[in-house]
Write a structure and sequence with these properties.
The protein is 42% helix and 13% strand. By secondary structure, the chain is α/β, with parallel strands linked by helices. Helix 14 (307-329) packs antiparallel against helix 15. The chain is globular and about 105 Å long. The protein starts with a helix and ends in a 16-residue tail after the last helix. Bound molecules: S-adenosylmethionine (SAM). Residues 286, 303, 305, 352-354, 357-358, 394-397, 400, 442-444, 489-492 line the site of S-adenosylmethionine.
Length: 932
């Protein structure tokens, strides 16, 4: 269930007669508990409560119903019950059906309300459904309710009006919804004079069966499009004439309204009943956009980017500086005035703005600063000088683009109410301005200069070849000479394998003439490149949230030299962080934030999180494309280790059509005796065998034993199948191997032992799952192998330092690392190790192996499951890290950023000479100007 569905279920529960016995189960059902779970609780099998009428669900909630007037005592009893603590209940809840009290035990936060108002507090209990929430939603679920109601209305209207669901009418439908939302907001904020006038007019004037609802609404919309002087001749009915002139593009054009069924009409009235005054345009906008998107409707409310996360982009981009200027101004009226003037000419531009949440937050934060200036200057009632049209966006989808504009309008009104009072706010609000500063289009095709023209008098706008596509939309001109432009946002990320032809085309026209390697770039790279190009035409600083893959592995040399070539540098960045949503069932995606500028900077600021989870920032002289405080360097493949570590090879490649390897069943079917088996069959480890403990064997025949082996018919048959598979291969090299069908490609096994590292490993594991196998085992090519090497090599691979290096320099596939011996192992900077160092590291590796042994037969997958990793194994890794990091710097590193800083410093030194010789030049076509 999503948050909206839970709200509906809780509302339904609260509206039904209270049933003392049934309530706890009905409550748990509303929070997404399955019937089987409830059945077991009912039977008492899993109910751990020690109170009469109590239901205790482990790790969740202890509920008790009680006699009238006993709620306070019952809550106390729940709190004091030893069972509550023993079962690790997160919440306690007591109710008598008239009132209700609850407490979240970890925070001590409480709720006390009338029972009938239970649904008002559903946000408080959302963690019961595994949904973590942000404060805004928890305390004030109006945005979720509004989304839920509109969602139902939208779906019902499309059922009734099939033609409105077509591509041709999509815009009309979206525009209609935007108008409705505006009206709901306006009727609850006195903009429509009186309260609830829009909804009550529809209620009174339309038939209950919905037949004329569309006509009533059409008439109201028509009224809102007629200026007051023109009303007399407009022939409006009296009940519509009282509505003000709104227009501003919102009510112009067709006022066509879809037809309503009885159900649609009642959904509309239910939506109108909500108090829309306090909707939060940043939260609401993001949630509501899913209403118009069939694919996303099921996840309503999950798409909201939290305000703190948006501020991680906006603060370092420009808000921190404005606040610092405010601080420095103190009460000095001139300095305050200068700051106000400066802000009036700041443009914020989000070229993937969705429903405008970055723009809304930027606007609200700037209004807060301006209000403080006005307070200090005793000009509290001054009109705002921050033009709403300075907040601009491009959004490819129609509905979010509509909503973005609306969200900004609502934000402006709410700020006016807050800083200038409701009367003034209402008096200046209508009619809305006509210009639409949110463009619906493809940001990678549009010329950004036509959305945000050049600002400086010194910058001449030349007919530009970089921005290929002419913009059909009207250019929005306004005086902003010498103003500043800040580009921000959270553009879409799409790895090269997931891009469709249209995405590739978008990237092609931006990159093809600059580099041969553009096909490997993530879609988000297009926004960085366009921002950098834009920066060469007018003064701008840009910062985007992005997948961290553009700052890792192969994308680094493909993208960043092109950005740096435009004169831009990374001026601030946030290293990998979880970008969680409003209410996320999962932990969210891992992103980075990268700010670029071509204006000279003395210091750059790098934000990161310490190992203990504490956010920190550091001023540094450089930030490189890996987001490491180091000069630009590209980590290049090395064919041999750059340090004294042992060489790492691929495991054995078979190219055998699957016939050299055998499942236990296949081996049994071959019916060979133990002597033959001992000679020609070995244990085989591909990645599944290594990580998940599966069993597989392989045929392993030395060249000198081929004749003997071929006398065994079942072996001979397998070898023949290998030959056939190789011969029919499309790969020429594989075909050449058909002459040696008994053998792997370049067969190799160890004499004593082999250190094994899987080629792909989930980033969710805190450590790379390196292991050691007996020398007789055959390691498949889904693993890397270090044969007969000292065990301290394993200590290096198992370390956090190595994990961080691999995560940074190797390729990632979604949330998996793709380990590389040439890029990750051979390049890994290791200080010169003394014999003593090697001895202690060997001991550390042994301790890790011993710790694993104590959990036999647990597999690597079991042992390195982040949720259940055994304590002694974690401790052994901790010791390994402690030992290794002391070898590097004499103490533990504070966080991964510091680890990388050290590793890059060492790498730069290790490779200084070859880099100078041009060895490390990235695969970039020389940047050239396009033909005029
Ligand atoms: C990750 S969302 C971010 C939206 C919003 N800032 C937020 O946090 O919810 C990316 C947005 O970019 C839009 N988008 C995708 N491709 C686009 C393109 N080529 N041009 C403009 N917008 C695009 C998507 O529709 C989506 O609204």
């Amino acid at each position: 269930m999503n948050a909206v569905e839970i709200e509906t279920a809780v509302s339904t529960l609260a509206s039904q007669p209270f049933d003392t016995t049934e309530f706890p189960f009905a409550f748990l059902a509303a929070f997404d508990n399955k019937e089987t779970t409830l059945k077991r609780l009912r039977k008492g099998e899993t109910n751990g409560s020690d109170l009469v009428g109590g239901v205790l669900q482990r790790n969740n909630i202890h509920i008790a119903t009680c006699a009238s007037g006993q709620v306070g005592e019952t809550l106390r009893a729940l709190r004091l019950s030893p069972k509550t603590a023993a079962a690790k209940a997160k919440f306690i809840l007591a109710t008598d059906g008239e009132t209700l009290e609850a407490e979240e035990l970890a925070t001590g936060e409480t709720v006390a309300s009338e029972y009938k108002d239970l649904a008002q507090h559903f946000g408080f209990f959302l963690p019961l459904a595994g949904i973590s929430t942000i404060a805004e939603i928890k305390n004030d679920p109006i945005d979720i309710k509004a989304t839920g109601r509109l969602n139902k209305l939208y779906v019902e209207l499309l059922k009734e009006n099939l033609e409105w669901a077509t591509e041709a009418r999509r815009h009309d439908m979206n525009h209609f919804m935007a108008r409705l939302i505006f009206c709901f907001f306006a009727e609850d904020t006195d903009i429509f004079r009186g309260s609830g006038t829009f909804t009550s007019t529809i209620d009174q004037m339309s038939e209950r069966d919905g037949t004329n609802t569309h006509q009533v609404i059409e008439t109201l919309f028509r009224a809102m499009n007629i200026d007051i002087p023109d009303r007399a001749s407009a022939n409006l009915p009296g009940w519509a004439d009282g509505f003000p002139y709104v227009n501003g593009g919102l009510f112009s054009g067709s006022t066509n309204v879809p037809r309503f069924s009885r159900i649609a009409r009642s959904y509309l009235l239910r939506a109108g009943e909500l108090n829309w005054r306090d909707i939060n345009p940043d939260i609401f906008g993001s949630m509501i956009q899913a209403v118009a998107d069939e694919g996303e409707r099921g996840a309503l409310g999950m798409h909201y980017t939290s305000v703190p996360n948006i501020l991680k982009v906006l603060n370092p981009l420009f808000l921190d500086e404005l606040r610092a200027q405010l601080e420095a101004a103190g009460d000095n009226p001139r300095m305050l005035l200068n700051l106000r003037k400066r802000m009036a000419r700041i443009r914020v531009f989000d070229p993937a703005c969705g429903s405008g949440n970055f723009l809304v937050i930027a606007y609200k934060e700037m209004r807060a600063i301006e209000a403080e200036i006005n307070r200090r200057r005793d000009e509290e009632l001054n009109a705002s000088e921050i033009p709403i049209e300075n907040f601009r966006g491009i959004e490819v989808r129609d509905f979010p683009a509509e909503i973005a504009r609306l969200a900004l309008v609502i934000a402006q009104f709410q700020c006016d109410v807050r800083y200038r009072g409701p009367l003034v706010a209402r008096s200046v609000f209508l009619p809305l301005k006509k210009e639409n500063w949110i463009i619906c289009g493809n940001a990678l095709r549009l010329d950004w200069l036509s959305v945000c023209p050049s600002t400086g008098t010194t910058v001449r706008l030349v007919a530009d070849d970089l921005f290929a596509t002419p913009l059909e939309q009207t250019e929005i001109d306004f005086a902003n000479e010498g103003g500043e432009t800040y580009i921000c946002g959270n553009p879409p990320y799409l790895g090269s394998t997931w891009q469709q032809a249209a995405h590739k085309d978008d990237l092609q026209q931006i990159f093809e003439w600059r580099t041969d390697t553009w096909k490997a770039l993530d879609y988000v790279a297009g926004w960085f490149m366009k921002a950098a190009d834009y920066g060469t035409k007018t003064s701008a600083v840009s910062a985007f949230v992005s997948t961290n893959s553009i700052c890792q592995g192969q994308q680094v040399p493909f993208l960043w030299p092109l950005i740096f070539d435009t004169g831009h540098e990374i001026v601030f960045a946030h290293t990998s962080l979880k970008w969680s949503n409003l209410a996320s069932h999962n932990a969210g995606v891992t992103v980075v934030i990268v700010g670029i500028s071509n204006q000279a900077q003395r210091i750059r600021r790098l934000y990161s999180v310490t190992d203990s989870g504490e956010p920190i920032s550091k001023d540094v002289p450089f930030i490189n494309a890996y987001l490491v405080p180091s000069q630009n360097v590209v980590v290049e493949k090395a064919m041999r280790p750059l340090t004294e570590v042992s060489p790492m090879d691929f495991g054995n490649k078979a190219d055998d059509g699957g016939h050299l390897t055998l499942t236990p069943y296949q081996l049994d079917e071959m019916r060979i005796d133990w002597g033959i088996r001992a000679r020609f069959i070995k244990q085989f480890y591909g990645s599944r065998e290594f990580i998940n403990g599966e069993t597989r064997y392989c045929i392993w025949i030395g060249d000198e034993d081929v004749d003997d082996a071929m006398t065994v018919p079942t072996i001979a048959r397998q070898i023949e199948l290998v030959r056939q598979a190789r011969e029919s291969s499309r790969d020429a090299y594989a075909r050449s191997l058909a002459r040696r069908p008994h053998s792997f490609k370049t067969p190799r096994i160890a004499t004593n032992h082999v250190i094994v590292t899987p080629r792909v490993s989930s980033e969710n594991r805190a450590f790379l799952p390196v292991g050691v196998m007996d020398g007789s085992a055959v390691i498949g090519d889904r693993n890397f192998a270090i044969y007969d090497a000292p065990l301290w090599n394993m200590a290096l691979i198992a370390s956090r330092l190595h994990w961080v290096w691999i995560a940074t320099v190797c390729v990632r596939m979604r949330t998996d690392f793709s380990y590389s011996n040439t890029l990750g192992w051979n390049t890994f900077p290791v200080p010169a190790l003394t014999e003593q160092n090697k001895a202690v590291l060997t001991q550390c590796a042994e301790n890790i192996l011993f710790a694993r042994e104590t959990h036999y037969p647990a597999t690597i997958a079991d042992l390195y499951d982040p949720e259940t990793m055994p304590e002694n194994l974690r401790h052994a890794h901790e010791q390994n890290d402690e030992t290794l990091e002391r070898i590097y710097i004499g103490r533990r590193f504070r966080n991964d950023t510091e680890r990388l800083e050290k590793l890059f410093e060492m790498y730069t030194r290790m490779t200084a000479a070859p880099q100078l010789e041009g060895k490390a030049q990235p695969a970039v076509k020389k940047t050239r100007k396009r033909a005029q």
